[in-house]
Amino acid sequence: MSAPQNPLAASRTASSQPSEQAATAATPEWYTQGLPHIWLPYSQMKTAPAPLAARSTHNARIQLTDGRELVDGVAAWWTACHGYNHPHIRAAIEAQLATMPHVMFGGMAHEPALKLASRLCALLPGDLDRVFFTDSGSVAVEVAMKMAIQYRLNKGEPKRTKMLAFKGGYHGDTLATMSVCDPEEGMHHLYGDVLANHIIAPLPQDEASEAEFFTLLETHAHELTAIITEPLVQGAGGMLFHSPDVLRTLRAAADRYGLLLILDEIFTGFGRTGTMFACEQAGIVPDIVTLSKALTGGTMALAATIARPHVFEAFLSDNPEHALMHGPTFMANALACACANASLDLFETEPRLEQVAAINAHLTRELERCRTLPGVKDVRVLGAIGVVELEKIANPDALRQRFIAENVWIRPFRSIVYLTPAFTIPPEDLTALTDAIYRVLSTDN
Q1: CA nearest 415: which of 377, 369, 371?
Q2: Helix (H) or strand (E) holding 20
Q3: Which of 61, 120, 140, 196 lies at a CB distance of 3.0 to 4.6 Å from 179, suitable for a disulfide?
Q4: Tell me, what's the pLDDT at 196?
Q5: Reduced to 3 states, what is the DSSP secondary structure of residue 379?
Q6: 167's torsion region: left (phi>0), alpha (psi -120 to 50) or beta?
Q7: Angle, helix 427-444 to helix 352-367, in steps of 10 degrees
Q8: Is the dihedral of CA 70, 375, 386, 177 positive or negative?
């Protein structure tokens, strides 16, 4: 199935839509006027189908302007852990909006940010206790990298500025974060000649990869400042799972070679893998951790980079140049911090981790039947993450349209079809998602 070249036409010709006349009548003016001026993410704009026109959301469902309703299987790119439009988060936004939506965080501080910082430090393992707020996950990782590099510069080790990252990894789309993503299998290989040169290795998951990992450390430790990885799940790299033992190996190696350990919990944090933070399952404490996505319950943009005391103390000096020179305009936005505090309230008062365990059991039971389908390479589940890996997906856009025809919102990428639903998703909606995957893959391969 080839994708139409006219984006607007594509939005009117997907399967299981109302008639052409009804679809045209339902297309709002804001859509027809605005679409020609939009540059969509991860899309070849010449051939990609047009985006769906969303009107409203509720819990795990998205209502479209043409009257259709889709069950959301990806929770707004893994963020809406409490479902859409939770009344407690909405009330917190309304109250904060009436008081102070934003104030600069340079030379000022406010209650929502300081309260959130103290709560995050109390939730995280060990002595992670200094929070630097930003406004996106990629920037949070950029800040972590800057911390790790300047940590060495401030300590008089100017040659130790490289990172050790891993194949299958993804840490963001900004220029510095691209340099620690998988350089060959990821989305950023076109930029290879202009990116900073870091060390990329296989994750040490078996005897051979462990040997390669420690050989690299022996060779390059003198120029390395930190190891960076996504704990338990490499998300955008293909929902690749690894055991807690890998994290313990990384922590031991970092200690042995005097390196910082950075854990990117932007996807895995806040219950997604079954514990509040993925690193808890390994019983380790990173030196720096990054958080975003579900931090505000999928409501507003906010991120955080959190460091242990020995990292922070390397920046304390009478020399002004030893300060961390970074400051996003909207860092610690008061509205976003109020959202995040409300989200943490819900983790305290509603049974989120129990819901994740129930989702895990449901996905394990319902997705396993896909294993015998033609073209299926693997089926795996961890926490509220369910993955059906295929040998290949020839046309992800076409496959996505098949799911839309089933009234579900599932976004296959690379060679995987995956689910990362809201933790509050009703069982019948979760079944609608797993049934749709089975039906579509039964007829598509």
Answers
A1: 377
A2: helix 20-26
A3: 196
A4: 87
A5: strand
A6: beta
A7: 30
A8: negative
pLDDT score recorded for residue 382: 98
Phi-psi region of 293 (alpha: psi -120 to 50; beta: other; left: phi over 0): left
Handedness of CA 302, 422, 11, 23 (dihedral sign): negative
The Cα 297–Cα 208 span in angstroms is: 40
What are the distances in angstroms from CA 437 to CA 21, 64, 80, 357, 429? 30, 21, 21, 21, 13
Distance CA 93, CA 112 (A): 11
What's the alpha-carbon Rg for the chain, to the nearest Å? 22
Give dist(CA 9, CA 18) in Å, integer: 14
Counting other chains too, the contacts that 363-367 makes at CB distance below 8 Å and 24 or more residues apart are: 363/419, 363/430, 363/434, 366/430, 366/431, 366/434, 366/435, 366/438, 367/419, 367/434, 367/437
Q: Which residues are CB-contacts of 352 (< 8 A; sequence separation ≥ 6)?
A: 81, 82, 271, 346, 423
Using CB atoms within 10 Å of the CB of residue 283, give its burial: 0 to 12 exposed, 13 to 18 middle, 19+ buried. Answer: exposed
pLDDT tens profile 51-110? 999 999 999 999 999 999 999 999 999 999 999 999 999 999 999 999 999 999 999 999
286-314 as b/e: b if 16+ CB within 10 A: bbbbbbbbbbbbbbbbbbbbbbbeebbeb
pLDDT score at 191: 83
Nearest to 360 by CA among 245, 259, 273: 273
Q: Residues 48, 431, 87, CA angle at the centre, nearest 5°?
A: 80
List, for residues 107-144, the tens digit of each pLDDT value. 999 999 999 999 999 999 999 999 999 999 999 999 99
CA distance 328 to 124: 24
Please enumerate, as own/partner, the contacts of 113-117 that have beta carbons within 8 Å and a separation of 24 or more: 113/332, 113/334, 113/337, 115/337, 115/341, 116/337, 116/340, 116/341, 116/344, 117/304
Catalytic center residues = 42, 170, 264, 293
Write the DSSP string, 256-303. HHT-EEEEE-TTTTTTTTSSSSGGGGGT---SEEEE-GGGGTTSS--E
Sign of CA dihedral 312, 316, 322, 326: positive
Cα–Cα distances in Å, from 317 out to 151, 288, 320, 349?
A: 12, 20, 7, 42
Residue 314 in 3-state DSSP?
A: coil
Ranges of the chain with pLDDT below 70: 1-25, 185-187, 444-445
Q: Which residue has the tokens 């100017």?
A: 158
Residue 252: name the closest of 277, 285, 225 by CA: 285
Encoded tokens for 170? 């993804």
Q: How far apart are CA 379 and CA 29, in angstroms?
A: 43
